[in-house]
Every structure is written in C-alpha cells, then in structure tokens.
Amino acid sequence: MSRQKRDWQEIAAEIASYRQMYNFACQIVENAPVGTGENEAATRLMESLEDIVHLPIAEAKRLARARRRFEKLKALLAA
To answer: CA–CA distance from 47 to each of 1, 21, 32, 65 (Å)?
Structure first.
C-alpha cells in the first residue's frame, strides 16, 4: 500500500462532516491518477455533494447517498 493511500485512510477516519468529505474527495481527485478506483469513487462523492455542501440543510436521501459513496471510497482505500 502506498504512503499516500495510508495517509488518506488516516484522514478519512477523522472525517465528521459532509464539507470535510467534499474537501477530502477534491484532494483525492486532484492527486490520484485518473482511471483509478480511488479517483472514480472520489469523483462520484464530489458530484453527490457539490450542489449541497454549501447549504445549511439538505435532503436526507442526498446526504445518505453521499455517506454511502464516502463509505465505498473508504473501502477502496483500505483494500
């Protein structure tokens, strides 16, 4: 496992908010090679949050979708 992947795992373990999830996904998209599972999962997470991350409240189903995508990203980083 690469050092960067381990670092991302540690960061992911500390994430508590959707804004943090969004910023984390942006970081991965900027740094992970295009076409990798991590990049694709981070892109999907970013897309699910980009319209709602700045809002004070969002629909529960959209937040649940983002949470599922974040968990998938974490699983990819752990693999």
So the answer is: 27, 11, 16, 11
